[in-house]
Design a protein that fits this description.
alpha/beta, eight-stranded parallel sheet, five-stranded parallel sheet, 27 helices, 21 strands, about 40% helix, about 10% strand, globular
Length: about 800
Amino acid sequence: MALATNLGFPRIGANRELKRATEAYWQGDIDEAALLATGAELRRRHWMMQREAGIEVIPSNDFSFYDHVLDAACLVGAVPERFGWQGGPVPLRTYFAMARGSQGGDGAGAGQSAGPGRGAQDDGQSGIRAMEMTKWFDTNYHYIVPELWPGQRFTLASRKPVEEFREAQALGVATRPVLVGPVSFLLLGKARQPGFDRLSLLDRLLPVYQELLGQLRAAGARWVQMDEPYLALDLGDAERAALRRAYAALAEAAGRQDGADPGALGILVATYFEGLRDNLETALQLPAAGLHLDLVRAPDQMEQVLQAGVPGHLSLSLGVVDGRNVWRTHLPSALSLLERARRALGAERLMVAPSCSLIHVPIDVEREKALDPEVKGWLAFARQKLEEVALLARAVNEGREALREALEASERLAEQRRRSPRRTKLAVQRRLAELQPEQARRAAPHAERRKVQQQHLELPAFPTTTIGSFPQTRELRQLRARWRRGEISQEAYEEGIRREIERVVRLQEQIGLDVLVHGEPERSDMVEYFAQQMDGFAFTDHGWVQSYGTRYVKPPIIYGDVARPGPMTVRWITYAQSLTSRPVKGMLTGPVTILQWSFVRDDQPRDETCRQLALAIRDEVQDLEAAGIRVIQIDEPAFREGLPLRRAGWGRYLEWAGECFRLATSGVRNETQIHTHMCYSEFNDIIEAIAALDADVISIEASRSGMEILEAFRRFRYPNQVGPGVYDIHSPRVPPAEEMVELLRRAAAVVEPGKLWVNPDCGLKTRQYDEVVPALRNLVAAAKQVREAAGQAGQAGQTGREG
């Protein structure tokens, strides 16, 4: 019989219980035992929910208090020396310090005593910097990057996978533990020494995995899921050889994978987000009992796998339900793929599954009481997706006739969606058809624009600014919540927003920033805020997904053509500008990021939807300019995130994504300065495409990596201005001015000093004012110091020339 299975479930809780408990722990309001109890209750609830949905193979060890890759690093003892770990289980306080950093005197993490022998590199003032964070492939989920170094030793430092398996076992739930596969773990990591081959550590790492598999086997596990997403990416011979070597060793520890050992622990190698393609032969040769395929992203690989010949001992897990998007599955089409596999292999060798872990979708659409009924009928969240998986598995086993009613209902729903007038706006379609190439080009090159902009803005060398948002205080959130509930009037709400904007403007003037922002007090989310003011979007009340740690977002849902009925930001930005003589940036979210951070319609190409978004943002940019705003920032933190995982698709994506950014930004005069912001992105391989965006200033995340990201700018002479972040806003740590000065000196060694801006890594929304104010004061002090040093060096050079 084909089995209904799942690869991973959202951790956060239907009411964001994990966020509230974790942040309460950080603040010292609850102790470690209370936090652990919350985690146990969420795991219990989620296992039961999956069982009730009809899932027969339920994952365990997919739960995490912060990030599953960080969990994997702690599992194998990959704890950087600066955190003072002495071996044994990694304490929870150290775990969180690795993710968030720690402030002076607290070597083990926020709100907890370092304890003896811990925090060896914490000087009591500057604290310990967090590990780097970056995007999980092409998603908006961020993972903590393992740090790898030559001679690194690994040890089994956690029993979390075994403990959670037994925890479920005690509840009567047999689970399949989920692990980050050893090869992907190393490739996800970062070499701390230039030129160091991460895969050279594989032979040191494998014994830890073997020991863990032995413990899981002894505990009674019958399957383990090894996530190897890199198997679906572009690989070379060395990576393929590493996979073969790794799984030969793991199979030995797990028992024979050919079915001859009835007590073996079956290994399922899980790939997702792309097709196997040129790695197919390697995947089929691995000594594993199962192989998971993402048939949503790459449905064509099903036929390729069957034609290549599936070894007789190998079962296939077929991901036919989209784990990345929220649309209901067209059950007849998904079933056709499954029936093809059943005819070739038999039902007993099939597992029906989502395409990937469901951490990328909300939990339950039935909680959305305010959602338009027609649009709601098109949607499936995690719970509904698992019900679809169970239905499809039943259809494989019992035949189409047994589920005829469900299949016919799915067909009717698809047809109703195709015919819905909500999907199309003729005016938007006409405007797209009339686009001209010159609309995506600025009137003059940057060198000319820069001279005009400097005349208008009169900024000093190393100008200072922030990325946009300021802390969203409890009072501000309460104001917004009371307004939404109708407890205060529109006038009272707007007066509260005006007071907050004035407070933020005055604070920035006092600190001494050169280009100000209005602080975005009226915005709950940088994508949702704009989507709520455009046609073609739907919104949820409970549709939260995890971005990183306790940072959750509610992605809007694009179901139809996008248009902007009227100005979205002009009133608040112009109010802020009226309060000061210093320039205030207009703050917008770019079209590619709105696309990437929304659940996007699947009934037309993504580039067409992105052009619709670009035209809407273009209109807003022009309205801001007409209202007298001289600096406008269009954030594109998701620009690289949208890059296809296979290089063969890069060219086309970069062409249309770059065109969309320029389309949004190129309708302004030369004197209007266009900024953009990108964070947690590797630019080395797309720096030419970043330059082709032709933004006057680009600000980027750089502080956690110690400005390593600027290596891209060393190789490529970037023509415009750059603001590498000198303040890591994802950590509660306040960096000293001296540290920022050193980062700026490193940046000035790569980028012409006259092109450098000084700014934090990202927006300040998630931080507290008692962290932000001293950090920004240090930032301004650092800028002044490098500005003075540059001026003195210039005077010395002039004196030398005169002599």
